[in-house]
Predict the 3D structure of the following.
Amino acid sequence: AQSVTQLGSHVSVSEGALVLLRCNYSSSVPPYLFWYVQYPNQGLQLLLKYTSAATLVKGINGFEAEFKKSETSFHLTKPSAHMSDAAEYFCAVSDRGGNYQLIWGAGTKLIIKP
Amino acid sequence: DTAVSQTPKYLVTQMGNDKSIKCEQNLGHDTMYWYKQDSKKFLKIMFSYNNKELIINETVPNRFSPKSPDKAHLNLHINSLELGDSAVYFCASSQGDGETQYFGPGTRLLVL
């Protein structure tokens, strides 16, 4: 069965510092992988998506993620954090096996310190 | 022009009442979903419809009943509301299996 693990329910970084949010997945087939962001009191918004093309995926707002098959990881990074990045971040995986379902991680709350 | 819309945005009601949440998408997608997000932000899939046909029906009490009158709409009716139903309910849509899901703004349900 597929699963997604996000390490750290809360991550705190200083403004201007590197952001690193970790996501590990398990899947028996090459997956599609997603990062979504949820700002307070809003719905989820796609940040970026991996679909077996380039392993380094660039998303919106300066975020990017690298697919590493050997490590079954899809960590999200941003070189320099901004106060507006404070939000909840979700990693999700799909095996495109016909069940139309995304398996979601538990989420990581990103806190930006001034 | 809102892609996925939900009404109402907030819903405060008494235990035992029946309520409905409506969802509409104008993206031309074939698949629509209902999620429940609890106070710890955990996302749980409840239902998924593809071309008006039920695809996913997770372990959800029978008090929850989805209805899809057409591909652009997926409504959620909840009977006999309980305190534990308090959560944020999100509607989403996608073009198909494994495709990006687009989320509505959520309906914040509070059962008193």
Notes: Chain B touches chain A at residues 4, 31, 33, 40-43, 45, 48, 50, 55-56, 90, 92, 94, 96-98, 100-106 (CB under 8 Å). Chain B has a mean pLDDT of 93. The first strand of chain B starts at residue 4 and ends at 7.
